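Mmaa protein, Capsaspora owczarzaki. Tokens?
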Amino acid sequence: MLLASSKLACAATPLLRAQRTASTRLALLTASSWTRAQAAPLQNDQRRGVSSSGTRPCLGLGSLPSAPSTRAGLHQHATSSSTPSMSATEREECSARLSVPTRSVSTQSTPVTVQAPVQPQAAKKTENDAFNVDHLLHLKEADQAWLQKLYDGILQQDRSALARGITLVESWRRDHRRVAQNLLDRILDVLHDRWSHVQSLGSRAVSTVTLKNNQTTTTLPTPFRIGLSGPPGAGKSTFIETFGMFLVNQGLRVAVLAVDPSSSVSGGSILGDKTRMTELSRNDAAYVRPSPSRGSLGGVTRNTSDAIVLCEGSGYDVIIIETVGVGQSETAVADMVDLFTLIVPPGGGDELQGIKKGIVELADFVIVNKADGDLLPAARKAKSEYTSAMKLLRPRTASWTPEIAMLSSLDSTGLADAWKLMLQFYDSQMKGGEFFLKRSQQRKRLMWKHVSDGILERFQAHPEVSRVIAGAEQQVMQGLVAPGLAADELLDRFR
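Tokens:
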């Protein structure tokens, strides 16, 4: 019986050798996919007796490599090789390591187990962090022709093209907004070159006033944005008419963006500011654009800043923004202009109490209007009281202390003195480097304003949210659900 078993084992030996030879060739073919460049740095680790992962190589695997997809065959070969047998602990460690996808590299020395290469995280992060808006600048062929026509017209100082451009940026249609943002981007490229040139002049970038043939001419290195605010009845529109004609006579081109209040019921607006600026609106060197507030807080429309950019691109030297009046959020205009001016009528302390303190704190310049006739004594008293009040407030900038001026829009008394003070503010900001720094901060805040508006718009249009908004509002109004809890539920549906 033992003799028969021995003969059977001897007969099976050539077959087992043939199987091991085939397994060896298959393993070598699999390992040949690794290049010499990849295998070379591993030899140092092999000499030290450790793998690239910092662990001792599995000696029980022998000198024959194997691909990860043939773990079972590799284990069978390891147990049948001529290498020394492993202890139970080493066998468990190797089995645990085999449970992770690995690749084995074959050299003349002991094999080393190397983990599959992983994509560098730093490179992936850099690619994801790159900010690029090129994909947003592609338009349809018809929109490109429309955009080019508006762009050329605005740069050529065509008032009708400017009017169409402002109408475009005020539109709420999504396709119009895409064209409008492309237009603004191209205009900003032109303005950026102008701003860079002015900044390179340093302290020399200031206003100049010349007198020729008894005619005073003012030159500004970059457009001057002036915001006007004040209570109803302060005479803002009359002041703009007189002040605008004064600037035109100084050789400057003036653009006026007047925001008219919209009805809370119908949403309509009379747009009557332009009718009170008859002489200025007919002048070729001026452009008056009334816009409805559409319920915007503070009377500043959603795209007033965009309209300012288009006016500057069209070559206007002074852009005046008139707002609806003093309100809780009227301070929005101060965040888009260079000089924020508060216009008040004669009224002294009573009027000072009626104006929001926040508006006074934001004012760079205060004008007491209607300083004529019987109101002249009251105007002088108001100027004195405002001068005392402004001393208690902290200045907005280190280079300028708010000034108080008194003038009459009817007979133009004090208008030249007020303009002189405005130019002093302009020059102080330019010399101190605060002018362009302030504008850059305003653009950053405007970006986040657009982000918040866009998020709210997309939130309300989300199908899961819009379906339950009415029910959520109803339950909150009835006191059945806490407002915060309802908001959390809506936000969860938005995810």
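DSSP finds 19 helices and eleven strands in the chain.
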